[in-house]
Fold this sequence. Notes:
Blueprint: E1 2-7, H1 13-26, E2 31-35, H2 42-46, H3 50-53, H4 63-70, H5 86-90, E3 92-94, E4 98-102, H6 116-130, E5 135-139, H7 145-149, E6 157-162, H8 166-181, E7 186-194, H9 197-206, E8 213-216, H10 219-226, H11 231-234, H12 239-255
Parallel strand pairs: 1-5, 1-6, 2-4, 2-5, 6-7, 7-8
Antiparallel strand pairs: 3-4
Helix pairs in contact: 1-12, 4-6
Bound molecules: adenosine-5'-triphosphate and magnesium ion (MG).
Amino acid sequence: MKIAIVGKGGTGKTTISACLARLLGRDGYRVIAVDADPSLNLSIALGVPPEEAAKKPILFDEEEFIKSRTQLSNGLYVMNPKVDDVIEKFGIKAPDNVILIRFGEVKRAGSRCLCPEYAFLRALFSHLILGRKDTVIFDMVAGLEHMSRGTLRGIDLMLCIVEPSLKSIEVAIQMEKFAKELNIKEFSIIANKIRNHKDMELISGIMKKQPIISIPYDEAVIEADKIGVSLLDYSPNSNAVKAISKLKEIIKQNLNISH
Ligand SMILES: Nc1ncnc2c1ncn2[C@@H]1O[C@H](COP(=O)(O)OP(=O)(O)OP(=O)(O)O)[C@@H](O)[C@H]1O
Ligand SMILES: [Mg+2]
């Protein structure tokens, strides 16, 4: 099962990715949690101790490694570099049977898709989506750019996080269009930071596609963030965790996911 978590900046992607990854891990799934956002917030949200994170480098910081996999001696580069050992080399042990991988920032900004670094990134996405049996959860960078690059082609489920704001709803509507173009099998909306029925009405009133779940606005999420602790460790019985547990059950039941 391959799940991508997308949406406007600050809507709750990392919080939900981390919690979902650990809850699926507790249920016995082998989960790879991918921090595909250069701001690298997922390790804290997962509750990875800093000393554990420090044991493994950030993938795109390892320029020599990427070069060794992608460059040919004649100045050309390999379109399909070897990536099948990347999880073993860069994977960090996180709680609840989760392995974290941190992509970091692709260094070749500006030249867009036609560079060895992006060839490596494309090959890696493809390997994680199509080449592995594990459950993979991608915590994506905010916005739409990654959608236009098509790196998420082949995933089973795209969860788009929406908060009660017009901007986040607009992003979700665009995301849905992209998801259709990429033939993503399942595109679902998650309403987050919901305080009351008016918040839900705002989302339901504008979006044709209705949220599969609403996660309440919960101070526990803010407090856990403030001190850099995983929500699941800080407040396992919080309403936000309860809602994300429900989301996990919906995913398992409706999508019939395999381990
Ligand atoms: N259900 C919630 N209730 C209250 N606050 C929340 C909730 N979900 C997320 N937040 C808060 O919203 C902020 C953004 O959350 P998070 O980092 O998970 O979002 P994100 O979409 O990953 O952001 P970014 O686009 O910057 O990566 C954080 O301060 C977090 O504590
Ligand atoms: Mg984030």
